[in-house]
Design brief:
The protein is α+β, with helices and mostly antiparallel strands. Helix content is 35%, strand content 24%. The protein contains 16 helices and 21 strands. A hairpin with a 2-residue loop joins strand 3 and strand 4. The protein is globular and about 65 Å long. The two termini are 25 Å apart.
Length: 440
Amino acid sequence: MNKTNKKIIIIGAGIAGLSTGCYAQMNGFDAIIFEMHNKPGGLCTSWNRNGFTFDYCIHNLAGTGKLKLAKMWQELDAFDKEDIIQQDVFVRVEDENGQELNIYTDIQKLKKHLKTISPEDEDVIEDYLNAGHSLLNADFFSMGMDGFFSKLRIIPQSYQIIKWSKINLEEYARRFKNDFLKKAFPHVQYNMEGSDIPMLPHLLFMAGFEAGDLGWPKYGSLQFSKRIEKRFKKLGGNLRYNSPVNKIILNDNRAVGVILKDGTEHYADIVISAGDGHNTIYNLLDGKFTSDFIDSYYRSYGESQEFGLQVFMGLNQDLKGEPHAIALLINQDLEIEGIKRDSLYVEIFDSTTGLAAEGKSVIKIVMKGNYNYWKKLKSDKESYKQEKEIVYHKVIDVLENRFPGIKKDVEIYDVTTPLTVERYTHNFHGWQVWSPPAAC
């Protein structure tokens, strides 16, 4: 490694900021990261409550197997291979009658399972899973790591990419003759709205699972972030916590430094914002570099977002033997944020995950959350708090039917909303994904 004597300032110690810092150090730069909080990770975080760890972020991590992205995580020392948990079932969809659709991470096992449920749908099942298998060599999760060659790699799959981008989960579900599969299939991708999710992302997940490349790191998201933080510091990087950036300093429209909240100025050859795009563009840069496209992008944001509302529970109950995730289809009345819900996405973490002690478990419920709904409530802190309590009690009433005795076994619970994310990360309207990155 040759020192360049050049300095890089990075705003934000999330995974993007930490990774950027590591690679800057590896390539001879002096990197300093300014982080507004007192711990790393940004959204990639966890927190402890009464001996339980509530994990906010990682559901499935690309690069935990042998595909190209694994090389990056190895260079960042992000996890130990022996601590990666590979799930047998990506998600189980259950209805109120006890019928089950298990989306196995082994394509052949899934094919056999689907044909057992509905032999008459053999042609639809074959079409679906042959498509997943055909995308195996494309390695989409590593796209861009080898530049031009990554584009060459997907040429043989271009027909499949175009075909499966044009149909969503709900549309494909209607091809099944079996009534249960028609009902269950739209829920297979994190229980997200089936009409909004093209088949292609789901098929890429199936290909990733087949490659053993979408595991989950034991001990959760914060531990994952802390390992990259440790790597950055070992490489000689400088990480400053409790150091929120207020402005980016410009010289002839070029970023040359930052002003922190405490008023101190810091200069560098390169400034990179690894934080929220909206905050960077409109606050740190005072809106000097917008365009009609960027402005319209943020104005057109939908207020409801997947993963926006989450309920965590620490249980004095051992849930070993349950699948890691269940999309629970329900027929009882469940109204949250004024909207009727017909399903809940339940993630289960037993003691083997490192998030709960032996004999105990953590349950995490993931739902759509509406920013405006919670923003209006926040004007009265007591109303905001009460509504979170109401959400918890509604959810636990539903879960009691699926996990008998769960109410009495809850030792601690927590509810997060889009406002939680906004407060913790400054992300625009508490968004977690799909906000455009900003760099300068």
